[in-house]
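Recall the central idea of this unit: under ordinary conditions, the amino acid sequence of a chain determines the structure it adopts. In this exercise we apply that idea directly, starting from the sequence alone.
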Amino acid sequence: MATTTAWRIRTVLSCLAVDHRIGGLLLLDAPHGLLPAMARGLATALTDERTKSSVVTVGAWAGEDDLWLRPRLVDGRFELMPGLLVETGAPPIVVVPDLGRADVAVARAAVTLLDADTATAERYGWSAAWQPRARWLTATDRRSAAGLSPHLLDRFPLRIDASGVEPAEFEVPAPPAVPRPYFSAAALDEVMRTAPGGIRLSLALSRTAGALATLDGAAETTAAHVRHAAEVLGLSAGPHPVVDAPTADPAVPEAETEEPPPDPGPPAVSLADPPAAVDAAAEPVLYPETLPDALPEPASLRSPWAGVNRRLRMRGPRTGVERTRSRLDLAVMPTLLEAAKHRRTRAELVIRPEDWRRYRHGWTPHRLLVLVLDHTCRRGWDWTPTLAPYLQWAYAERAAVTVIDVGHDTASDELRAEHYRATGVRDPRVLRSLRHRPGRATPLAAGIDLAVQELLRRFRRSRAHTDRAWLVVVTDGRGNVPLEASARGAVSGPVGRQGADDAICAASGARSIGGLRTVVVAPGSGPYPGLPFDLADALGGVVVSPAVQP
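Accordingly, the structure predicted from this sequence is:
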């Protein structure tokens, strides 16, 4: 697998050196150090005697001022110079180490520049225009890729599963200075059969095939080059004819029929053949945003801090600096450096309001959804429609999610509740929890206790401020495992109502939490219909039946 992936990486880099229009490259689950090694190899291939290609790294720290216009020290004074993405010479190699955590400015820049014919930047009275030829190399984990903006992912049609690949230096050949090959009709038909959908992916496949033909020295891009490009990109190919050229007209005598030009096939010298058969069914893995359960992040090309006050923003991790008109959260050293740029014109070091810089903070969820799922009460009814409004709220509010599973058949210990924290409902573990099958024991008291402790931690003990939360408990109230038995991992003797009473006692700790809304989702009927109401009274919430939506 690793050898096949390394072959794909070398081939894709060689194609990007030939044609910048192919699109951006996105590595899934790439190991540390792989992306810089790829960037160095591609930069070497694009460097010649006259120009030198540079590697530009942008990430969560990069803002608008860094990308389009930035100050530089020239002859002992600061001057405004083109930013990281403004091309003034050889095309740069843009590296985004984690596309899922990149700043919104980086995401918007990728959407704007990739596959664009021209680009302009105008800022603070300074303007520039250029033809974007930068090559974008990015990486992220598979879970984050499924939640990125479709507009952003559309600019990265080249995908490689880089898990398990050892970082190594890649030797990328310099692109040959030859005319682009003619794209044959058979190659176009092969593209239409192979590309799973989307105009940009079809264009990427066509341009990759054309780059392979260029590297092979062919005068024409054939269907064989398209099939080779599909192997490189991990796309599933449909059935294809044995002969690429059209058959001869039967009315023409055999002696007068021209021989079709030989199929050059995939390149065999500059780009070695894959060392093993390439899995052609990798599309659902390489393109997770096409899966039915993929949920892109809402408004992912807009700042998540829009509408959030500055004091809440200050609790997020620091990712950079930006201009400010307030002394709140003032970045001292960046402010001093900004004032130092104007020292000559001011005769001394004077800090003025236009020099003030504040920290730019990464996103930290300030809304929370806690789900307590009692899987033993699921028999005979579907809880999904009733839970849907709360999941939609968490999705729209970018809320963090804590799921507490109680009594499912795959639990490591059926006497204990299990829990995990997710950054949002887009986490695939949330969907798996909703599909668990019922188990035998119901440690409801342990699950309620975990939920209360999680809420207290988020509201009172954590630096990540939470101003609003939902606690949703799905249960019929029949807990048959006392809290002490869950702690010891063993039950001794009959328990009676002890498990249900412990759950009600543990629930009382949530009544005093401000900003918390609580509901108990209970099945419509059961042998003890009063238990869910007793639990809701202890929590300070209400009972919701499956037929009633909040």
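The two ends are 49 Å apart (CA to CA).
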